[in-house]
Design brief:
This protein is of the alpha+beta class. It contains four helices and ten strands; from the N terminus they run ααββββαβββββαβ.
Length: 192
Amino acid sequence: MSQTSSPGAGRYQRSSGGLVGAMIVIVVGVVAFAGLNALKRDHDSTPVRAVDYQAMVRAGRADQKLSILAPTAMPAGWKATSADYLTGSAPTWHLGVLTDEGDYIGVEEARGGAQDLVEEHVDPDAVQGKDVTIGGVEFQTWTDAGGDYALSHEIGTGDTPTESWLVVGTAPEATIRDYAARLKGAKVPEAG
């Protein structure tokens, strides 16, 4: 027995029109798949994580080189998002928080004058405003073209500041001032 086959049996006609049609079907399928996945995806895919700032507060205060300003407890709905204490001959303290409205407020402390903190964390061209007194402490106020508002304070004897504080953020001025009033620090021993 012999098998006979006709020429072209089992074959299909290839054309550029068929190729383009197949590509369109594939592209539409990929776009539809991506669109459905986008609808299913949680839109807050990277929530801001809170950090345990109290552990850093204890470590920094135990070092006794800076006051380590921090609230005893965060206001309701607020999150500490970063906390860092660096010891050594030039210790620094940083505490970053987000308010319940999503605004940022940071606390910065370092040895030396406040001008360096203002230039680094507010703006080199920050504008100094009127001084304000919060909780019996006199603060200098600062603003910049980007909408930041800051409070600075220097501790020291005579004309030589030994420690400076900065409370800076994108939150409304009143919110930053209220937060500054909540901050507590440890007494730093006199150098001698």
